[in-house]
Amino acid sequence: MSMVHCKHHRINYCINHGLLCSCEPELVKLVYRYSTKELDQFDRQLSELCRSRDIDTPQSSSSQVSRRRHLLSETSSYQSKNEETKEPIEQPPSLHAPYQPSLFKREVINNGRIKKKTLNFTPSSMPSVIVKEQSEMIDE
């Protein structure tokens, strides 16, 4: 991420957020290029500030405050654990995951109640499709 300065407007602009003016290129010069570490640190400080403001609001009940603090501590401990061990964060399943026809989740409605049921299908139990030739269809 970079900051540039426009001599005409006397303002710094962020390149990544597209806040550049329409001045000539010679009027705009690079002021500072932030490192990734600085940006991460700034984001962390900003999120902590926002969290502390949310927690300390007077209209929040004590149960909400304690629940938020508990969630905040769990989140921060999980993040610090991942940073220390350098474990990859669990990714959602890929769209290209191998097809497994034996496990399908279906919703079955019984007397107005929805129940989740695992139905096991194997290739032999799958319904077969019969393709008829056009001449056979005319004869019938």
Automatic annotation (TrEMBL):
Segments of this protein annotated with the region Disordered: 53-101
InterPro entries registered for this protein in UniProt: Znf_C5HC2 (IPR004198)
Domain Zinc finger C5HC2-type: 1-41
Protein name: Zinc finger C5HC2-type domain-containing protein
